[in-house]
Amino acid sequence: MDRQFWTYLGWRVLQSLVIIAIVIVGSFLLLHLVPGDMVDVLGGQRGDMDAELMATLRERYGLDQPVLVQLLNYVGSVLQGDLGYSYRNATDVLSLVLQRLPATILLVVCSVITAVFFGTMAGVIAARHAHRPIDVIISMIVLVFYATPIFLTGLGLVIVFSVKLKLLPIGGLITPGVDFSFLELVGDVALHLILPVFSLSLFYIAIYARLARASMLQVLDQDYIRTAYAKGLSTYNVIIGHALRNALLPVVTMVGLQIAELFGGAVLTETIFSLPGVGRLAYDAVFERDYPLILGVLLVCAFIIIVVNLIIDIIYTLLDPRVEISR
Amino acid sequence: MQEQEQGAALLDVRKLSVLIKQSSRQKVRAVDAVSFSVGVGETLALVGESGAGKSLTAMAIMRLHKAQSMGVEADSIRLDGQELSTLSDREIRKIRGSTMAMIFQDPLSSLNPVLTVERQLVEAIRLHNDMSAAAARQRALELLDMVRIPAAKSRLGEYSHRLSGGMRQRVMIAMALAGNPKLILADEPTTALDVTISAQILDLLRELQTELGVGMLFITHDLHAVRSIAHRVAVMYSGRIVETGNVEDVFSRPHHPYTEGLLAARPHGSFSLDGHKLREIPGTVPSPADRPAGCAFGPRCNRSQPDCESQPPSLRNETGARTSFACYHPLKEVPA
Prior knowledge:
The structure holds two protein chains of two kinds.
Chain A: H1 3-33, H2 38-46, H3 51-60, H4 67-79, E1 85-86, E2 91-92, H5 93-128, H6 133-147, H7 150-164, H8 182-220, H9 223-231, H10 235-272, H11 278-287, H12 291-319
Antiparallel strand pairs in A: 1-2
Helix pairs in contact in A: 1-12, 5-6, 5-8, 5-10, 5-12, 6-8, 7-8, 7-10, 8-10, 9-10, 10-11, 10-12, 11-12
Chain B: E1 9-21, E2 27-39, E3 43-47, H1 54-62, E4 70-73, E5 76-79, E6 82-83, H2 89-95, E7 100-103, H3 107-110, H4 117-128, H5 133-146, H6 152-155, H7 165-177, E8 183-187, H8 195-212, E9 215-220, H9 223-229, E10 232-237, E11 240-246, H10 247-252, H11 257-264, E12 324-325
Parallel strand pairs in B: 3-9, 3-10, 7-8, 8-9
Antiparallel strand pairs in B: 1-2, 1-4, 1-5, 5-6, 10-11, 11-12
């Protein structure tokens, strides 16, 4: 890692800060376009609030100020590391999000790994046997994965594996009320994650399989593959040693683009499998008009997505030496 | 140089044909029953226009042709005493890169862009030699020295896109030498390079060939390259060999009208605007799909007679002629 690399990193961090600023302002203003505020929701639920109490509440939470002032206040507190206070949960937003984050990260990371691994493998096998029965079968399965919505896959998997076969837990992240040792805990969490991970990643398995197949077919046609065969390498070694790395490049690009979508998919998956993650937190926050919480979730997710994309760009330069790091 | 005796030939190809599947029914003979041999330490140049079947011939020998769309037929392909045409794919893999190695036309696209020179070289070395990683690295350095790459050590970690065209082709040659081949098939190795670099690569190949005593099948459409590197030459036209012999004989006394036309189409010495025009052969090469029934060159030939259309002439050796040619009405003694 030379000086050029650090210049590049500094530049990217600067870019990221601008993006985060845009996310903050954008989502703040967007939420304020929605008619009604938190006090309206509270009043509606309690039913006995008079206009005076509502005005007092608005004053206390700064909701009576002009939007621009509220925005500046919010930005100011975010800069101090304070993402605001969730009225509904009576906790500060940051600790609430951080508390839910591990489950989501676990889900998303496992899904990405599953999707890339199985997707690429299916794609490579299909490309290797292009236009033959194996390819056709893989393509058909992949098409089904591609066409099935996440919630349907999730519910279907639950019905088959949890309800009928009783093989896997129906939801949650840990079996409650059991005292586990560390290893048992890992096993238990893994067991709980199988269904959510597969329902979230099946769609992406399909995408990566199609991408890897197309990319592999293109790579297998290149002159350097012929060179590899001319050396006397076996087909397996040609594919693993010479073709795969080149064929993976578009897949890696795609992963960066789809991390954001995966967070979106996590909302659905966490709801279906009642996982204590950020997705479900956001889902609940939307229904409760818990604006600071929604903003906090958006902000933290945006931050993670930006960091992941930076990492992916760096991985890309490691995979493809032709891509030189520069501004 | 004397004509090779059959027994001593390093590579002996008998009636090799390459068929390209056009549709499920139709097959086209892109290479039509060519026979030739390459002796130990000898360079045979395979010359012809694009589409004459030169590269396909080499691919078929290496069995690198696309098996899905092409078929190969041969009475025999003998390399160093071993019959290749009956070997399984697994067996031929052991010979590829060791007994016979290939150099390709475009060194940039022929080198893997994401692997270092070292990775690609060491891989070729260790595939055919039982060597430790360290010894293989040492051997890689030797090979780079052998192909006259300066500062070889610093080139090992480079990727192909950071090397010059000539340097890339040198790396390709080093890779071909990794398995200590007896036969090198060079498929237009200088075509993608500019003139000065191409001359350097030709020099290198000629020197290596003498130094190592390997046989070489050198494919080109560049007659100057033939002259500078080859001992013998086989001229291909529309999938067939039309004339073959020692380079000097073919160049000075061609008997086949096509060879004569090719030689006449070369630019000579000085370039002048008002001087003699470049002679060209009228017409174009027929595609293998609608090759005439008789001599494939017949329709373009100024010496053709009605009997040329009956059936294709086979390569023969006429008394007094120093080359073999496939022509019913060959040129007799032509002044050089």
